[in-house]
User: Which sequence fits this backbone?
């Protein structure tokens, strides 16, 4: 075996960006482990609880049970454990289903934008030249757009608006930051010896980019994906709070928190918005702390080499 072949083989045999070392550094952070446990427990509770909720029954309007207090029983015999909102809808059911919707939407948007952004960023940084200029000019154009206003306009004009429409609209704009980040990382990673050796060996560009180069960006991908997961949940909740998120027939944490805009609900009927506010706060803090711990672990891996 030639020296170049040995070099490529050894480069491919190294675990991508020391994932085991990153895991070891992560396990040293006790608060991060606690945050991860809280996050896993919350997600399990949300998805298991939502499985036992019937959305049609949860969103059934009962004007006679308007603002029913926690623990009260409706005319149909349904017990409002966390009370009811202004339409007599069960707050507990909306909390479970709304949290599940927010998590699924945030996760789906994160995966779609990561695939598009990472792929375009690696392609742009690897090839450079004309391809890089064209792709980066597209990225620059999208980045200067008032994205939040454009999303609100699309939500307002789409006739049959649903969850998939919302995911598609947000995914169309939130990949550009990832593309620019991974383009810059690919520019520096592409100068390493194993990439030059692979090119000399005649390895295809696709294999070099996505089987050799991308695994060495895995720690950055993981940390970026984790942080963006929390951000996308926050964006969905914010838009629903403003009335431009999910349709009114679909439960959302942002919709429950939005009831606090009424002074009467804010002061006298805290059971409507407080549980959703606490849940979204704990979710966001847990995800962000786990993401920050992953970032610190990846930085420690780079320092240790």
Assistant:
């Amino acid at each position: 075996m030639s020296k170049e072949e040995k070099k490529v083989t050894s480069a491919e045999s190294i675990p991508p960006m020391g994932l085991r070392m990153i895991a070891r550094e992560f396990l040293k952070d006790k608060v991060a482990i606690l945050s991860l446990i809280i996050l896993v427990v919350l997600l399990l509770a949300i998805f298991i609880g939502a499985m036992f909720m019937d959305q049609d029954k949860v969103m059934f309007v009962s004007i006679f049970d308007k603002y029913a207090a926690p623990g009260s029983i409706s005319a149909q015999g349904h017990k409002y454990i966390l009370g009811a909102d202004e339409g007599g809808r069960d707050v507990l059911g909306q909390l479970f289903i709304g949290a599940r919707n927010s998590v699924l939407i945030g996760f789906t948007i994160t995966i779609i934008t990561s695939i598009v952004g990472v792929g375009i960023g690696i392609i742009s940084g690897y090839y450079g030249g004309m391809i890089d200029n064209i792709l980066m000019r597209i990225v620059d154009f999208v980045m200067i757009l008032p994205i939040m206003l454009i999303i609100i306009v699309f939500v307002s004009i789409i006739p049959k608006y649903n969850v998939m429409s919302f995911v598609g609209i947000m995914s169309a704009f939130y990949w550009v930051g990832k593309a620019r980040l991974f383009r810059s990382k690919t520019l520096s990673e592409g100068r390493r010896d194993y990439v030059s050796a692979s090119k000399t060996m005649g390895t295809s560009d696709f294999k070099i980019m996505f089987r050799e180069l991308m695994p060495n960006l895995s720690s950055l991908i993981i940390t970026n994906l984790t942080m963006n997961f929390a951000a996308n949940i926050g964006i969905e909740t914010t838009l629903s709070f403003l009335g431009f998120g999910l349709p009114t027939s679909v439960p959302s944490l942002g919709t429950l928190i939005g009831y606090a805009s009424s002074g009467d609900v804010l002061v006298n009927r805290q059971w409507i918005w407080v549980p959703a506010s606490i849940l979204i706060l704990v979710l966001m803090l847990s995800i962000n702390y786990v993401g920050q711990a992953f970032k610190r672990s990846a930085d420690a891996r780079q320092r240790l080499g």
